[in-house]
Design a protein that fits this description.
Length: 221
């Protein structure tokens, strides 16, 4: 596809994300996502993070298969999860479930450092290649069981999980800084909710459910 066609599709994607946020304002608690998040979504070429045969559909607001029975989340969910984290420029962010690297590339626009963990080696290697091509030099990726986090670089300001456990893994809560936030889908396969967890200064954790979602199961649990 021509670059100008892809650019037009990306603009359409941003419009759809904005419309979804407004339509769900009662559920997500705001009528528009943060400008920094929207700029990051507009900057990252999503078509570079999907299989080549699916590039014509890259900017549609739908999840797309990336192999190994995994998907890249629909753009609105990527934007919403990023927005819920409220990432600051000096933050270090842990991502569990790299996939082909799209969410990590969006996070890289906003955070100081992104540590991303992918359990499937082939996906992880493809993600490394794509992130390198997009010059996301502040993303570090490893192939491992994300259920255990990345303790060597903990604690993290923010944690994002792109696959769903039944319950929030205690190790990931432990690796979150006091004052930090985690966004994670959790629950049984037919009853998953997108959850925002916050760790307070005294170590107490509070959770808030937002949307009903459907993510693939977090492996290694």
């Amino acid at each position: 596809m021509r670059a100008e066609d892809l650019e037009a599709l990306r603009e359409d994607m941003l419009a759809v994300i904005a419309a979804c946020a407004f339509a769900l304002r009662g559920t997500i608690g705001k009528s528009a996502l943060d400008d920094r998040v929207m700029r990051a979504m507009g900057k990252v070429p999503r078509h570079e993070f999907v299989p080549i045969e699916l590039q014509p559909y890259a900017y549609a607001n739908i999840p797309l298969p990336i192999g190994f029975e995994k998907t890249i989340s629909q753009p609105f969910i990527v934007a919403l999860m990023t927005d819920l984290l409220d990432i600051k420029p000096q933050d270090s962010v842990l991502e569990i479930g790299t996939g082909l690297g799209y969410q990590a590339a969006v996070l890289a626009q906003l955070a100081r450092k992104v540590y991303s963990v992918e359990i499937i080696e082939e996906l992880g290697q493809k993600a490394k290649q794509r992130l390198r091509q997009q010059r996301c030099s502040n993303v570090e990726l490893k192939i491992a069981n994300g259920y255990h986090g990345w303790p060597e670089h903990a604690p993290f300001d923010k944690v994002i999980v792109t696959a769903a456990p039944d319950l929030i893994p205690p190790l990931l809560i432990h690796q979150l800084k006091a004052g930090g936030k985690m966004v994670i889908p959790a629950g049984l396969p037919d009853a998953q909710k997108l959850i925002l967890a916050e760790k307070h200064a005294n170590g107490r954790v509070t959770t808030k459910e937002t949307l009903s979602v459907r993510f693939s199961q977090l492996e290694g649990t």
